[in-house]
Every structure is written in C-alpha cells, then in structure tokens.
Amino acid sequence: MISIDLDAAHEEIRKALARGNMFKVFELAREGLLAWPEDPQFRFLQTLSLARLGEPYAAIQSYDRNRVSEIGTEDAIALKARLLKDLALRAGPAEQAGLFRQSSETYHQASMLDDGYFSRINEATTAFLSGDRDRAVALAEAIVRRPEIFTPKDYFAAATLGEAQLLCGNFAEAAEAFKAARCLPDANPGGMASTTRQVGIILAHLTINTDLRETLLAAIRPAPILHYCGHMFSDHWSGARALALQIAAALDETGSSIAYGSLACGADIMIAEAIIGRGGEVHVVLPFAEDDFLETSVKMGGQEWLPRYEHARALAASVTFAAQMPFVNDDHQFAYCSKLAMGTARLRSKTMQTHAVQLAVWDGTPGTSVAGTAADIAEWRSQNGATRIIYVEQNRPRLALPPPKAVTTQTSRSIHAIIFADFSGFSKLSEQLLPDFLNFVMGAIGTILGNHGDAVLYRNSWGDAIYCVIRTPNEAARIALEIQTALDPALLHKAGLPEEGGMRISLHCGPIYEDFDPIQQARTFYGTEVTLAARIEPRVPVGAIYTTQQFAALIETKDAHPFQFEYVGKMELAKDYGARILYRLTQTVAEMNSG
Q1: Which of 326, 457, 478, 587 is 20 to 30 Å from 543 at the Cα level?
Q2: Other beta carbons less than 10 A from residue 405's beta carbon
Q3: pLDDT of 422
C-alpha cells in the first residue's frame, strides 16, 4: 500500500525505479493515481513502467489516458519518442524505418525544451536505427564534445558517452566508458538495465563479431539475478561462521543484489540475510501455509532461527505463497515452490536485461527426492542455468524433525496447467446463431485440443465456457495461442458471428487433485488452484490471454519457445477471490512477424 503522504509516496516509487523493479513502479503509480489523479510524477511513471516492461501498446494508451504530453517536460516528450521506438522494434521491415524516424524527430522536439543530453543521444540512436548513419554520427560526435559527457560525473552521463562512442564506431572507447559508468556511486540495476537494452538494440544493427558484441554488453549489463537454495542445518553447527564468509565471497564474485528463494533454517536464511545486509532485494517464495512452513522448515533447526526468519521476512521485498494450502506430507509441494522461485528469478532477469544464476549451498550428496538442494540444482541445470556451488561438510548436527503431520486424504495431487475460457457476447446470440457458434467456435476449439493428443488430460464445456487441464504450461500456452488465432474477430465476423464477440482465456499452473468423478464416471481434476484459474477469466479483455505469475514462471526455458509475457499488474479477481499478479501471453515479435 502506498504512503498517504505525497512526498513519501514519491520517494517510495523513486526507490522502486532505482532498483529496476518495474512491477513495483506500476503498482505504486496505480495506487498513487487513485489518491492523486493529477500528480504528474505518477502519470509519467505509470506509463514509463509499462514501456520498460515491454508493453508499448498499453504504454501508448497510458500516455494518452494520463495526458503525459501535457506535463510539458523534456522527459514527458522523450517518453513518447521512446514508445515510438518500441513500436518500431515490433514493426515489420516496411514500417520500421518510418517509426524510427518519427521517434528521432520527437526526441529532437524534446531536446529543444532543455537541450538535455538524454534526448540528444536518443535522437542520434534512432537516427542510426532509421538508416541515417551520417546524421547519427554527427549528433554523436557533438555529444562526445559536451563537457558534462567528455568528463562524466554521474552514471547516465558516463553511459551516454559509451553510447555515443558506440554510434561513432569507437568500440574500445565505448566499452571503457560503460565499465566506468558501472563504478560511479549513482549506478543502479535499473539504470544499467535500461542502458543494456539500448546497447543491445544498436548492436543488432551492426555487423560485428560475437566476441566483440558480448564484450560490449558485459561492460554495462547488470549483475545477474540470483536463485538461492541450500541445506537446512542446526543453529549450533560450527561451520556456519565459515559459510557466512563463503556466501559473502560468492556475492562479491557475482555482484548480485536481487535474489529469489525461500527462508528455511540454514542456508536460505543466511543468504537472504547477506543480501539484505548489503542493501539488496530479497523475494521470498514459501511453499504452503506459513505456520506449517515454520514447523517443517524453520523451528526444527533450533531456537535461533525463528527470530532470524521473522527479521528477514519483514525486510523482504516481497513474500509469495506458491499455494494457499497446508502441508500434506508431499515433497512435490517443496519442488513446486522451488520451480516457482526459479521461474520468477528468470522472469526478473529478462526485465533487467541480464541473466539468472543459482547460488547453492550443497554437501555433494546426490538427491533421492523430487525436492531438496540436489533436486534444485538438477532442475536449474535442466533449464540450462549456471550454478555457483558453495560446498559444505556432510557431517552436520541432526535437525529436530517434527512428527509427521496427519493427512486426511490419499487423493493424488500433481502440477498441471489449467485453461478457462468463455465467449464474450454468447448470451446475446440469437437462437439462429447458436448452431453456427457450436460448429465454428466450439468446433475450432475441439479440433485444436484434438491436435494436441495426450497433452490434454481433461476437457469439459458448458454453454460457451471451456475448462481444460493440460500436461505442462508450455503445451497450454501453445493451445491458448492457437485458439486465439483461430477465433480472431475478423474470422468470427466472416462466419456470421458478431465481430465484437471473442474468447477470453485464462491460464494458471499449480498442484491440483486428480480423482474419479462418480457423476460423469470419468477422471476429473479439482482444487483451489482450479478455482483460482476460473476467477481470472472474467477479468480478461475480449481476445486476450491472461496468465498468473506462477504460469509464466513455470514455462520451461531449456528449449526455444515463441512465448512472450507482458506484465499486466496486480488485479482483483472475480467473486472477491483476492488480488493476483497477472501477465498477458503473446507470441514473440519474430513469431508474429513470421505469421
């Protein structure tokens, strides 16, 4: 919840911006606009956050809705230019140069308001991207000669020097400027992420070798995002002091200050404490009800761990529960939590224009379960992730294991993807159109599901609604995108159905019960995660696909996929089911252009 004091609210959102946490910036701006709808900072930053999250179409709408151009500052006009640049990056070859040219012209308008170097360097870069290399070099050379750029005293001036040198083809000088920028006191992950994105765009339009490309990106790229994990151990283990020093050394080595993981006694809490102690950002993911987690994963290590847990939790940037359910003596609950923490770390790394690495405290013992440190390392490596291992001794004091918790059901539970969808406007269809709806709309969906064979574990429909359980999130995403393509509004109109109608699709992934339905005399799937997916669908705009953060985080990344997840925000679900962070699923730019 944002502060009720405007100055404090401004400071809160500035801190989130400096950390590069665009999810938080979006939410704070949304809350700020509810309290202060005319505040120019919230109007500007809500639009900027959408732009940085890779949502240019929504950002353009936000720019107009929030009347950002009326703010009249260089930054406000430059933001419109940035959105035109983002649209150009998504456009086909025929439109791209023109949009880059419009962007360059708009940056020029912004620079005339204040003659700031920010707009000047972006004017040069977009001129370069439009194909006007001579103008770009002339502008860049003029920027390098500016006193505040030639001898920079702050991060953005130094980064601008690097970008100008890059446009001039002075690659060694560009790399040195970027390295110097990272060392300045005001350098922060958010700023470095923005610069890295810009450098990557320029490099994509240059013919240079792979090694040089990586050298230039590495010079400015933010430190990697961490997923952390490790063994639980007793509060009187003598090796803890040495481990603390090794954790500090590993953080020095990676430079990481943003991390995702749990808060079990032992390695988890120690890593979280180390990051928080450096002023970093820890995002905690817990597997199930907190009271059960404390019994199974914190108190068993001794009296010292509970207050340390409570302190780290209070200082965490966020706390997420993988599932709103108790512990049912199932290791898959811990495995699901770990996969979610890994996936959210990878999602954040993409936003930050960097990569994710795993920091693991491990004694080298091979895993015998689906959960645990060895299993987490294996899962991360299966996604082609790099792991930095801190090895510890195997002979540690035994933990005070709690007695097994009584479980009231033996029904099996497994992690699968869930699809809910319905057809907006169905209730307004005339009696004569119902057969067309059944044949065209439901027939198309049935064909798509049939094409995916065994990936579809369960399907059901009633009226215009469908409910499916799909084996994996990747397969569910493919099915949802195929349904979206098949039921394009233009195709619906051609089939005689109202053009304003269309499917709304929600996707979720989590642990659900698999059982036998005595009414249908068939297999069925149910549980709180199914209900959650159903509560999302009424909030989805017509023709769109919304997913939970869990779904986006659990997409397998070991193989190339055509999926792109764009942050929507934290939305209140139907029937007072609480608020959830949602993403819009689309295809990648390359996939869209190829279609």
Answers
A1: 457
A2: 12
A3: 87
